[in-house]
From TrEMBL:
Keywords in alphabetical order: Amino-acid biosynthesis, Aromatic amino acid biosynthesis, ATP-binding, Kinase, Nucleotide-binding, Transferase
Described function: Catalyzes the specific phosphorylation of the 3-hydroxyl group of shikimic acid using ATP as a cosubstrate.
Name this protein carries in UniProt: shikimate kinase
One Pfam family in the UniProt entry: SKI
């Protein structure tokens, strides 16, 4: 049997029903290559005791799943995310959580999971713009009216969305460049999903560029074109992304869970890290 020792770095501390449990993930692989998930028995609501002492991982097949963070997608992992969500929601006190980051960084995918964990509603600012425009797609707005026109509507959307409490908002990748948008996003807290360009280009090449007009190419080599365009945009925007209250670096997270490829990190693991970083920020503000 293999076991994974969790000791520090990713700290999922949960406070449920007045009891404190902690889930500590030690990213340092043991020399012995022994893996062991060691979770304190957690007292749950309704006096149910969840004994998360060990997750049995078979020697060959499942060890990779645990290391890759698939653990977070297990039943226990989902429970921990929900518990962490409740804890962070109480610190947020109704404030919205705005996800910022480049196209394809996972704002929508991770945002939906976060809204469930926090018991918040989910809003996608691109979808809101499309609604304001009577159902015209973002790609169509760019084509017919140009980027500047889209940016006006994006600001209107963020303004409206910032007025509604308890929302996770996936912003468009370019929302950070307008100082006005920060005024709206500062009504809540902002988390930057920092994903390496190569990974973004691979994701976008996999799904195509139809819905992303700034990257829309006919070329067969979608990866190279996307990578080039994303590099230029990222240079222009890196300072603006750095304004976010908290950052989730997928490179750091991959190193932490022992993965070579950031694309192997599951959205649930990323969502957990968003909550951890958001809570760190909220705690630092309190001091
Ligand atoms: N952690 C992840 N693992 C696997 N696929 C992902 C992950 N995050 C996002 N994706 C995929 O990448 C693409 C872009 O993600 P999306 O959430 O739409 O990004 P954004 O909203 O930032 O543009 C989608 O096809 C999505 O399914
Ligand atoms: O980076 C950008 O400038 C854009 C990102 C898109 O949103 P996603 O980040 O959700 O793809 C969308 O708002 C529009 O195509 C412009």
């Amino acid at each position: 049997m293999k076991a994974l020792t969790y000791g520090s770095t990713l700290q999922f501390s949960t406070s449920v029903g007045g009891e404190i449990g902690s889930f500590n993930q030690n990213c340092k692989r043991q020399q012995t290559q022994q893996h062991f998930i060691n979770l304190n028995p957690l007292k749950l609501e309704r006096h149910r005791t969840l004994n998360l002492v060990t997750a049995h991982v078979s020697k060959d097949s499942n060890a990779h799943d645990v290391e890759s963070g698939t653990f977070c997608d297990s039943l226990d992992g989902k429970w921990l995310l929900k518990a962490k969500g409740r804890e962070v929601a109480s610190c947020l006190d109704g404030q919205c959580l705005f996800l910022v980051g480049m196209m394809g960084s996972g704002k929508t995918t991770v945002g939906e999971i976060l809204s469930d964990a926090l018991d918040y509603t989910f809003a996608d600012s691109d979808k809101y713009v499309e609604k304001l425009m009577g159902g015209t797609s973002v790609a169509q707005i760019f084509k017919e009216s140009g980027e500047a026109y889209f940016r006006e509507y994006e600001s209107k959307a963020l303004q409206k969305l910032s007025l509604v409490p308890q929302q996770v908002v996936a912003t468009g990748g370019g929302a950070v460049v307008r100082p006005l948008n920060w005024r709206f996003m500062r009504q809540g807290i902002t988390v930057f999903l920092d994903v390496p360009l190569d990974a973004l280009a691979r994701r976008i090449a996999a799904v195509g560029t139809d819905s992303r007009p700034l990257l829309d190419y006919d070329s067969a080599d979608c990866y190279t074109k996307a990578f080039t365009a994303l590099s230029a945009l990222s240079k222009e925007r890196s300072e603006a992304y750095a304004n976010a209250d908290a950052t989730v670096s997928l490179l750091n997270l991959a190193a932490c869970v022992g993965l070579k490829d950031v694309l192997d990190i599951t959205p649930t693991t990323i969502a957990m890290e968003v909550l951890v970083q958001a809570q760190k920020y909220l705690n630092s503000k309190r001091r």
